Amino acid sequence: MSDSLSVRLTDTALDPKVESDILGLGLFATALAEYIDNCPTPMTIGVQGDWGSGKTSLMNMMKTELKKTIVPIDINTWQYSQFSSRDLLGLALIDALLSEIRDVFKMDEPRSKKLSDLSRRLRDVARTVTVAGVRVGAILDNDESSSDGTTDRLHAGAIDPFQVPRLLRDFKRDFAEMVDNILSKGGSGTRRKKIVLCIDDLDRLEPQVSVEVLEAIKNFLDVPGCVFVLAVDFEIIRQGMKSKFGSAYKEREGRSFFDKIIQVPLRMPYESYRTTEFVKSLLESANFLNSARDLDWRYFSEMLRQTVGINPRAIKRVINYANLVEIIRKRSPRTQAEKTRAAKVNEQQKILFALICMQIAWPELFAYFSRHPTPTTISKLQDWDAIEELPEGRRLLSRVTDPDRVRDQVAGFFDLLYSQLDTRKVDGVIDEDEFQIVHQVMLYANLTAVESEDLKSGQQKFLDAIASRFEGKRDPAAELAVKSWEGSSWNDPSAVELRRRTPTVVTFSAIAQRKQIATLMSTNAYPFGLRSMLAHEVVEREWRDVFGEPAPSDTLIDLVKEQQGVIGIGDTMIDIYRIGRYDIEDSKVAKFLDRVLVASIQGSDSV
């Protein structure tokens, strides 16, 4: 395999020095460079796209064009986030930008000293901030000197925190003067055009941190002579705003913040991607095509489109996973024995590729399918309603931004898989002989599955156990119980840790703030039970507060009075399955469960 081809299959951005413009981004990179060359300043441009959509590749190509007239400065936020406190990342990046400016423009001694003073002033501002009871200055460098004595006065207590806004204004003014000075010394008596600062990997940071970094850039460095080119994902900004402002956040505020920071957005040109050439080139690079027939690569391309879409990074991931697993499959003794049957080997390759696509796009559904690999499962997962009935399906739909689009993709994927399996009789029905190929390759597909039992949360394992108990049965009570549970905070691993007590009986210890507060179980007596440490009177009170009336007598059991021999510990059994038998809104049941959780954490046992 040639170097250029191996570069394409790595999970790295396109390097215009080595690779051809396989995605067709050249036009947009050239246009962006021309705009930057001529735009007014200050200016902030946002290259907007999803994770893995090619933002870094576009910026790399733009910088190659830009270097003909302007030297861009690069900062990778992800690298600095590994070594900086989250609360200081914005300031750390600004400090790094100052250092990069010094190095790129080879500043003389007076200007270099001015830049050092700016850097020290930035640290002085940071030292007024206290994080988690620790003064920030304690974790900054040990340089206590400052040309204007600011640091000494700060440590002596002379600087009031209320002076920080003035210090920020002074910093921005001095930075503007420094930029103007750099641009005026362009060499050969000419003035440099502008300083272009390219900031990448913001979408790798925690969403709230991304928002704070953008705010820091805008507040400190948005001065004449500077152009910022930011690789951003609006969805990450939206999540960051929600995290920062909580329940007070309104959707339009996220858009308003984005528009305030980003003056000129450039959305990644997905529609212009040369996806066909890109996919075909990668498949050929991976030696994944057994023949030159169009039918082969078109099948692979359609499988990718139905699952991971046209995201370049996700496409590379699928092909790399599939390539590794295909090598293992080809070298297995079973496949070696079938070498003469090339048609069957090629068919296995196609089914394996489809399973890898499902695994990467929808790990929740892959986990379900790997446990239930049957023709019935394929038919079931083509139905929108059936997907929502599965705990795995609900987890998938809850994490995506466009559930209806995902439902369509899932249905289209299984249509394609169904037609690929129905190749012998072509009668619209998959019999066991036709489906046997799935069993043959499922072992290999599971080799790259990330969502193993060890990586699942206790909540996922508990719901899997519930799903197994009711497998193949339509039980409205169980469905309402699961829906109520999923809508409550008990189903949040960050709020409650569930630890399985024994491999043979479905019981889980529920732990919050390092104390056991309940036992979860799925037994014949209690198919979906929560044995709470709270007194029966307390649990009954929480029920009345939510529903305005006493609980049905068979739903909240006082185990102290009843003296039932129930597994686990706790005074009160909340029979969530029996609650599901009553005509009750699942949202209200979830609210009741949340109140029980709060009371359990507080350790209340009073009436």
Lateral arrangement of strands in the main beta sheet = 8-9-10-11-13-12
Globular, elongated, flat, extended or rod-shaped: what is the shape?
Answer: flat
- Residues in helices, as a percent range: 40-55%
Number of strands: 13
Distance between the termini: 73 Å
Low-confidence stretches: 1-7, 129-159
Specify the biggest β-sheet.
6 strands, antiparallel
Structural class by secondary-structure content: alpha/beta
- Overall mean pLDDT score? 77
Radius of gyration, in Å, reads: 30 Å
Q: Count every helix, treating DSSP H or I runs of 4 or more residues as helices.
A: 28
Number of domains: 3
Q: What portion of the residues fall into strands of 2 or more residues?
A: 5-15%
Strand and helix layout:
Blueprint: H1 3-9, H2 26-38, E1 43-48, H3 55-66, E2 72-76, H4 77-81, H5 89-104, H6 109-127, E3 130-131, E4 134-135, H7 150-155, H8 164-184, E5 195-200, H9 207-221, E6 226-232, H10 234-245, H11 251-261, E7 264-267, H12 275-285, H13 294-307, H14 312-331, H15 333-337, H16 342-361, H17 363-371, H18 375-380, H19 384-389, H20 391-399, H21 403-421, H22 432-445, H23 458-469, H24 476-486, E8 497-500, E9 507-512, E10 515-521, E11 529-532, H25 536-547, E12 556-558, H26 559-562, E13 572-575, H27 576-579, H28 586-602
Helix pairs in contact: 2-3, 5-6, 5-9, 6-8, 9-10, 10-11, 12-13, 12-14, 13-16, 14-16, 16-17, 16-21, 16-22, 17-20, 24-28, 25-28
